[in-house]
Structures are given as structure tokens and as C-alpha cells.
Amino acid sequence: MTDVLVVFKKNFEQVHDESLQKVTEILNQVKNNFDVSFDLRAREQVRRADFIGRDLVIVLGGDGTLTSISHNIDAETPVIGVNSHPMEEDPSGSFGFYMDSNIDTFSADIVTALSGKAIINQIPRLQAIIDTTSGNRFTTDPAMNDLLIANTHQYAPSKYHIRRDGNKCRQQSSGLVFSTWLGQGAWLNHIIEQNTIEELRKNIQGDQINNHYFVVAREISHKQRIDQPWSWLDWTDQTTTITSDMHRGYVVPDGWDEVHFNRGATITVNLAAPKLCLLTFRKTIYEKLSDLIEQKLV
Q1: What is the Cα–Cα distance from 96 to 64, expressed in whole angstroms?
Q2: Which is it for strands 79-83 and 56-61: parallel, antiparallel or unpaired?
Q3: pLDDT over threshold 90, residue 200
Q4: DSSP 106
Q5: CA-to-CA distance for 93 and 89, rounded, in angstroms?
Q6: Cα diameter, the chain
């Protein structure tokens, strides 16, 4: 038997309720042919234990629904993203980059997935490891898109020492943003000038997109951009280490749970987090992003 968990967005909007009803009806139609059992959980109520032992996770909502719960999903568990409110049908809906299925295609997509014919995408994810001055260690939730490291008081500068591959410097900015290749359409696209990101992409090799990530120091002084270019904008496979010179700072993966630290803490960032096994049905997730870049939508 295939054990399926459906996690859905519940905000009492009719469009999401109708999408859940349709997904439930389709699963009831296919469960006998494919020997499927399934459980439904609202995003706000789901717990780590709900994901253990599942053969498939279906996330019904938008990208935010997926990023908010993806850290609970083991690397071996396939995930289907179903857009419950597509922007194509309503401008106020979700773009749903990671949600390759929707209510119109789900009936065929679930059969493709249960037949073992879906496209398997292994999504790299960022992680940050925080070592405190008292000897405690914390690992943040993995991030599909980006990690922010900044002062918890956004009106105060983020001060830190940054080290990578033998290089080190002290700088201050409004925070460091780390982004995966796939995450560049989330936040990165809004904090780097279009011509800068386009120039950077020209030098990126295709085999780097699974093991490199972007680093951007937001709103850094022009002098530091010239003196230490690697420390304000980079595309790297090296581990980045930051030592905090802030009274209090935080790490925020994918805009969700915050992990706080104090002055002297060391934060290590890399792509060593477990990957996410995301299923798509018409193109790989990398092909989808390439299409968006070509259309200059990212």
C-alpha cells in the first residue's frame, strides 16, 4: 500500500477549500487501482511525526506552503506540489514555481507519480549551523530558496566577520542573503540589479547549479564592494563562516522560523542539508527556471 500525506493550505478562502475537495475526490477515485491510503493535514496543524514513514507527500497550496513544511520531509520521500490557486486564473493567486501540478492536471499527474513515471528532481538546500560562545550548536531548518543572516533590529547595521577559503574581512551591511540556484527568483532577484545578475549568470557552468550558491551582502558600502568583491556578491561552493559582532542576530531560512544568536556566535553556511525529492511532470524544475530566465521573468 502507498501511504500518502496531503498537507493543505487552510485560510478559509473558498478557492483553497474547493481545491482540497477536488484533490480528495481524485485520490478516492485512484486509491483502489493503486492501493493507496491517504491522510489530510492542515499546514497549521501538521507535525514532524505526520511525515514519518510516508511514501508520498502532496502539498496543496503555493510555494510558501511547501517551504514552510518541507524541512519535515525526509530526502527519500517524494513530494508533489499542487497549486491550489494559480495566478493564471486569478492575478491574486500563487505563482507556484515549485508547484508543477494544479487542479486541472492533478488527476493525470497523480497516476503518473503512482506509476513511477514522474520526473525526479533532487533539490539542493542550504543550512546554517550556529555555534554559540557557550558551546551549544544549533542547525537551522534547510532552505530551498534562501537564508537571511541579519541583526534582529532591522534599523541597526549587521556587523560581522566573514571568512571563506582563506579570505576574511570585517564588514557591516543590512544583512547577508544566501540563495540556491533555484531560489534566485524568490528574493535574490529583488536585491541585485538585473544587469548584475545577468552578468553573473554568463560565467556559471551548468554542473555548478547543484553544488554552488549565491551570497549577497545587502546595502553594503561602495568601498567594500570594490575592496572585497567576493564578500559582497559571490557564487561559490565553499563553506561561508560568519562570526557575529552584533548584540543579537538571527538566521531565517526561507522566511520562516528564526534562530537567534548573540555576539561571538559562529554561523557556518553551506549546501550540506538533505536534498528534497520533488516530482514534476512536464519539465524538470531546472528547465522551468531556465524558461523564466529566458523570458526575463527572473
Answers
A1: 9
A2: parallel
A3: no
A4: H
A5: 7
A6: 66
Alpha-carbon distance of 230 to 219, in angstroms, equals 15
Query: What does pTM read for this prediction?
Result: 0.93
Indicate the length of the chain as a whole number. Answer: 298
The C-alpha cell at 254 is: 526561507
Q: What is the mean pLDDT of the chain?
A: 93
Q: Name residue, grid cell 526561507.
A: 254
Paired sense of beta strands 158-164 and 259-262, if any: unpaired
Q: In the chain, how many H helices and how many E strands? A: 7, 19
Q: What are the two backbone dihedrals, phi and then psi, of residue 79, each rounded to the nearest 5 degrees? A: -130, 135
Q: What is the DSSP letter of 281?
A: S
Helix axes 106-114, 14-30, angle to 10 degrees: 40
Q: Can you tell me whether residue 187 is helix, strand or coil?
A: coil
User: For residue 52, how far is the Cα from the chain centroid?
Assistant: 21
* Nearest residue to 204 (alpha-carbon basis) of 232, 236, 238: 236
Cell triple for 129: 549551523
Backbone angles phi and psi of 273, in degrees to 5 = -65, 155
Sign of CA dihedral 286, 270, 223, 168: negative
Structural domains in the chain plus CATH codes: 2-123+275-294 (3.40.50.10330), 127-270 (2.60.200.30)
Amino acid at 148: L
The string of pLDDT tens digits covering residues 61-110 is 999 999 999 999 999 999 999 999 888 877 877 889 999 999 999 999 99
The alpha-carbon radius of gyration of the chain (Å, integer) is 20
